[in-house]
Amino acid sequence: MKAVILAGGYGTRLSEETYVRPKPMVEIGEQPILWHIMKIYSHYGINDFIICCGYKGTMIKDYFANYFMHRSDVTFNMKSNEMKIHQNDVEPWKVTLVDTGDGTMTGGRLKRVKEYIGDETFCMTYGDGVSDVNIGELIQFHKSQGKLATLTAVQEPGRFGVFKLEDDDVQITSFQEKPMGAGAWINGGFFVLEPDVIDYIKGDKTVWEHEPLRNLARSGELVAFKHYDFWQPMDTLRDLKVLEGYWNSENPPWRIWTERKREIITDAHLYAANHNRVKM
Predict the structure, then answer these.
(1) CA neighbor of 28 nearest in space, from 250, 257, 244
(2) Which of 41, 139, 152, 243 would disulfide-bridge 46, Cβ 3.0–4.6 Å?
């Protein structure tokens, strides 16, 4: 299965970082967030990526052009102009980098890579958010529903501490630091899609989250996989600091690839969680 990653936006709300590089290349730890997202998919055996480049896309291409060398031990014999690779620590990734235009909208980017997707079910997500969502269960849930599109529904992380206060009282009876959203579900990305969804996209100016998703919902072809655990976008500098804090902790929630053996997706892992189904 292939995974499409939207990585071409301007990232204006993170202008402190995106002035010099595209948002997916902003680093958490020593690696860009794009690498972290790909590691999540790779953990579930998805290693074929289509990356939709745009704003400063050459930096993404340069990163992968030099990836093998940067992850390898190598000897250069200058006299004979020879190079010997001793060992490397690279992932089994196939990465297709497509220039989808600086000003193209999210739907337009997806439409522009149609020829690289082919006729099979595929995954899609944004190049600026991480999660511990179980991709294997997400895919099997999508297959069990028989619809064109499945999105991962999440509750937005709380940004402020909340507390209860009676009508005219000043006594705080309970306090919770940064709780999850108050019951509202939002689009967390991590889609599983059938190729026919591209027919819902008109062109470069189409925003995936507007007409295509609305029309898919109206036609009964959009369902949601509820994810109750960790999800964190990187929209602002504050979000970046939050992610860096997690990464520097003992156990970053999305670093699933070091926690257990890689889970290859097979039909034996059928996931029949109908309780996760939500009509959009």
Answers:
(1) 244
(2) 41
pTM of the full predicted structure?
Answer: 0.84
Helix (H) or strand (E) holding 53: strand 48-53
pLDDT digits (tens, 9 = 90+) for 179-228: 555 557 889 999 999 999 999 999 999 999 999 999 999 899 999 999 99
Give 185-240 as a DSSP string.
-EE---EEE-GGGGGG--STT--TTTHHHHHHHHTT-EEEEE--S-EEE--SHHHH
Reduced DSSP (H G I as helix, E B as strand, rest coil) percent helix, strand, coil of the chain, to 5:
30, 25, 40
Classify 35 as helix, strand or coil.
helix
- Say which DSSP state 83 is in: E
CA 83 to chain CA centroid, Å, is: 36
User: Helices H, strands E: what count in the chain?
Assistant: 9, 17
Alpha-carbon distance values, 204 to 110, 116, 198 (Å): 9, 17, 12
